[in-house]
Amino acid sequence: MKNLIDIVWNKPVYQGGSIFNNETHYSKGSTLISLFYLFVFLIAFQSITFNSQFPSWSEIVSSEQYFIPQWGSLWIRYFDWKTAIRLIYILLIGSSIIGMIFWRKSRLVRVLVSLSLFQFLSLVSSFGSVDHYLHLLVTTSLLLIILPNENSKTYKVDLLKVIFGIQTIILSIYSISGFYKLLGIVKQLKWGVTSALSPTGLTLQSTKTSYFSGNEYFFQSLLVDHQGYWIPILHISGYLVEFLSIFILFRIKLHRIWGLALVLFHLGIALTVGPDFSIHLIPIAIFIMFSPFGSKQYDLYDDIKSIFRK
Amino acid sequence: MDKSHLGSKVVQYGVSAFICLYFFLAFYPKYLGNQKEIIPFALFNLYTFIPYDYSNFDLQITDSCGEAYFLMYKNDHLNAIERKYFFAWLNKIGEEYRQNKEVKLDSSHFIIENIEGKVDLVRISGDYIETFSTKSYQIEILKQIK
């Protein structure tokens, strides 16, 4: 097992050298983590405004009767409701500000950011159903706890290894999610019912979400009025982008283009089926689309051109 | 010998262990547990199947002026929390009805006691695309609650 782990960690190479021993990669990686903590602050900032996808804080404060705690928010029952809710918001905002400034200096700060994000996710998911839009952000923040403090001798290599770990978990999650969707097609074909291969598959998904949310999505009428085989092609392409994600983990050169594909995949979902996973785009864009590995610059156009270059 | 270029073993094994633990906790409820998602781990069951004909449970409320509306469907007055809660609650009631052909629900329930007017448990069924295009659906009254 120990050997297997060592082999996996020695595998990622770019232009003959390990991706973890590269000053340019380190400097980009460090900037990207700072950017991540900036976005955590922006999420915390949004949570107290009234124009975000989160339930507003005032709605939460007045919804004690609907509270069905997730395991992470069981403690709230033992405190005064309004005080506990305000405490979670203060913890989220306070830790995100400290995180932006001190994430390199102290692991405790990173633990605090992670804990507050988790508490917020637990809270908004404790009203009957789980909200999935914060999962990737919480997972990424949990992985960043493993990073040692800046004064560690091995800090630079460790930082890049943690980023590679984040990439691994994000790409694995997408691949497994894609796998279950493809498995869903096989099962539905076996049951003889409508599947994602049908010209109405995506339209049914879209109109179902609309039924429950009461919203009409940007391309929904187009899907309803112009059904045809272009729809399953689009639909299955999305599944494949998800499913094939893990296969680019060791193809360093493809990281950023795949990151762009995942961003476009979520854009496609928002335009057709509706669910808003824009917060997922933060870890995807930071750690995959602007991957610190494999390129000297941030220019995505140059990356795309390099695929066709020998 | 300076081995700093290799990085710390704690990070290498820590990240590997975290990834293994993540997927263990993600798959545990799916294959060994009660199908209930453990946050913040993914359950990988979102949008895996294409829905077809639907049959959803709702409450039909008829106010004193005879105007009828639903608790969930097309109710623009709900906030995000109410929408989430009622969705899960009606799903649970629907599940109970499907299994027992009866639901233990009366006017003393805290949601129902706050509603003014007549309340019926109904089943709304139809085809999602047709409902979206023509706003048509079938409605069946299952039980008068209040």
Task: Report on this structure.
The complex is a heterodimer of chains A (310) and B (146). Chain A is mostly helical and 310 residues long. Chain A has one domain (17-308). Chain A has 13 helices and 2 strands, in the order H-E-E-H-H-H-H-H-H-H-H-H-H-H-H. In chain A, strands 1-2 form a two-stranded antiparallel ribbon. Chain B has 146 residues and is α+β, with helices and mostly antiparallel strands. Chain B has 2 domains: 1-47; 53-144, no CATH class. Chain B has 3 helices and 4 strands; from the N terminus they run αββαβαβ. Chain B has helices at residues 9-32, 80-100, 128-134, and strands at 53-62, 68-70, 118-127, 138-144. In chain B, a hairpin with a 5-residue loop joins strand 1 and strand 2 (68-70). The radius of gyration of chain B is 23 Å and the shape is elongated. The model of chain B has no long low-confidence stretch (mean pLDDT 88). The interface between A and B is large, with 79 and 56 residues.
The total beta strand count of chain A reads: 2
Strand proportion of chain B: 15-25%
Major sheet strand order of chain A: 1-2
Cα-atom Rg of chain B, whole angstroms? Answer: 23 Å
Summarize the entry for a quick read.
The complex is a heterodimer of chains A (310) and B (146). Chain A is an all-alpha fold and 310 residues long. Chain A has helices at 2-10, 23-47, 57-61, 81-102, 107-124, 135-144, 155-191, 201-213, 220-225, 230-243, 255-272, 281-289, 300-308, and strands spanning 13-14, 17-18.
Keywords:
heterodimer; A: mainly alpha; 13 helices; 2 strands; globular; B: 146 residues; 21% strand
List the helices and strands and how they pair.
The complex is a heterodimer of chains A (310) and B (146).
Chain A: H1 2-10, E1 13-14, E2 17-18, H2 23-47, H3 57-61, H4 81-102, H5 107-124, H6 135-144, H7 155-191, H8 201-213, H9 220-225, H10 230-243, H11 255-272, H12 281-289, H13 300-308
Antiparallel strand pairs in A: 1-2
Helix pairs in contact in A: 2-4, 2-7, 2-12, 4-5, 5-6, 6-7, 7-10, 7-12, 11-12
Chain B: H1 9-32, E1 53-62, E2 68-70, H2 80-100, E3 118-127, H3 128-134, E4 138-144
Antiparallel strand pairs in B: 1-2, 1-3, 3-4
